[in-house]
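About this split. The held-out portion is used to measure sequence recovery: a designer receives only the structure tokens and must propose an amino acid at every position. Recovery is the fraction of positions where the proposal matches the reference. Here is one held-out target exactly as it appears in the evaluation file.
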């Protein structure tokens, strides 16, 4: 825990980072009243559309580390990316500031999507799905982006046991990623995930959806060097599939 807090502090995010330059857009507010930011890279170009999400669980600092370093590299050199990329760098700022999995309402945002299998769970529980599907602002924002932007690939960054988890027709993308990152590809995380993004986008809408579980507790400085090429490989595969 101590090392996590120390690492977390080495990433001055989002105050010093998100306000570095103006292109960030405010999508709305979290349950706890924090702004939820987004930005688009290559917005003016007609390219395949991908959505990259970090910080769904506020205590999964590895995802913040990835997105921080990713934007450091690409925010000013977006032309190097082969996709139009919608980035949600911190979907759960309440959890980020409080260092909790859930938002300020105690809801696990990856159990709150309006899916056929949604279940409330138990308030106070680690996986509490909310009082009704899509009850949370954060979920409404994510849903709106998916339905309006219509991404052809979604990568959501988490941290836990290392794995490339796939939902929907995502296997080719996972294979491409696994060529650059020696994490196992899984179709099942090992327990039910009602109301998850993977079910909403991957299974119910057939959008290839990858949940990249970065190894929990690894050195935050090593996250981006380790995972960068895998994520880029998925984007390049999307671009190749579109042009062929
Ligand atoms: Zn997570």
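Reference sequence for scoring:
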């Amino acid at each position: 825990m101590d090392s996590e807090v120390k690492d977390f502090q080495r990433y001055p995010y989002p105050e010093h980072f998100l306000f570095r330059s103006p292109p960030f857009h405010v999508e709305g507010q979290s349950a706890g009243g924090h702004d939820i930011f987004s930005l688009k890279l290559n917005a003016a170009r007609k390219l395949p559309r991908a959505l990259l999400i970090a910080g769904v669980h506020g205590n999964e600092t590895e995802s913040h580390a990835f997105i921080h370093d990713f934007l450091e590299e690409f925010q000013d050199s977006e032309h190097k990316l082969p996709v139009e990329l919608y980035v949600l760098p911190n979907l759960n700022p309440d959890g980020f500031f409080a260092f909790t999995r859930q938002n300020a309402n105690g809801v696990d945002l990856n159990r709150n999507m309006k899916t056929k299998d949604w279940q409330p769970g138990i308030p106070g529980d680690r996986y509490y799905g909310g009082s009704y599907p899509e009850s949370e602002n954060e979920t409404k924002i994510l849903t709106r982006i998916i339905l309006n932007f219509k991404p052809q690939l979604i990568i959501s960054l988490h941290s836990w046991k290392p794995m490339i988890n796939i939902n929907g027709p995502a296997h080719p993308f996972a294979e491409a990623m696994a060529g650059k990152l020696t994490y196992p590809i899984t179709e099942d995380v090992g327990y039910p995930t009602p109301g998850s993004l993977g079910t909403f986008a991957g299974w119910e809408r057939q959008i290839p959806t990858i949940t990249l579980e970065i190894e929990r507790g690894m050195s935050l400085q090593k996250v981006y060097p380790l995972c960068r090429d895998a994520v880029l490989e998925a984007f390049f595969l999307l671009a190749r599939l579109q042009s062929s």
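Annotator remark: The chain has a mean pLDDT of 90.
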